[in-house]
Known about the structure:
The protein has a single domain, classed as Rossmann fold. 35% of the residues lie in helices and 23% in strands. The chain contains 5 helices and 9 strands; from the N terminus they run H-E-H-E-H-E-H-E-E-E-E-E-H-E. It starts with a helix and ends in a 6-residue tail after the last strand.
Amino acid sequence: xxxxxxxxxxxxxxxxxxxxxxxxxxxxxxxxxxxxxxxxxxxxxxxxxxxxxxxxxxxxxxxxxxxxxxxxxxxxxxxxxxxxxxxxxxxxxxxxxxxxxxxxxxxxxxxxxxxxxxxxxxxxxxxxxxxxxxxxxxxxxxxxxxxxxxxxxxxxxxxxxxxxxxxxxxxxxxxxxxxxxxxxxxxxxxxxxxxxxxxxxxxxxxxxxxxxxxxxxxxxxxxxxxxx
Length: 228
């Protein structure tokens, strides 16, 4: 009888060890929800001149990527919710895309999330109205612009990659339709899928300004260099 008791005890111990190994390997016990990527998109002035962001949102959702579109005026409240969800492991990585004033908003939101200790995997501004420094908590910035004064630059602690994609040479693209360009949508979707597919890792939150090695931004890319 004692022999069977010992055998049962060994079996229980083995099952417990197996459960522990599964938690260590997979990061959670079976059945626990994993965080999912979330793309936040922002429209510009009056929410009527950036309808391409609505279309891009639908395209991303159609590819199985969680995406929501918002007014640029609401970026701070959206950022607060995103930070809570990220820290609760409900979502991540976080991706930001915006047009015009919405492009300005995503750069500000990325910086704000950095102050909250939340990393941002990717930021894609469509023709921002001004230049912004890329925050240290951001892994990658792809700035689609037709304004040389709106190029983005590495900010303090930035160690990611930064590409200013200059589309000013394309006569068919203007500020009011850049957000609707199928070619630029394809570029944005490709960048998003690269993150969601795990080929780009989320950068750690930046340390104090000046502690990271300086980053040299990539030279401007012409529209002709964007994959069709």
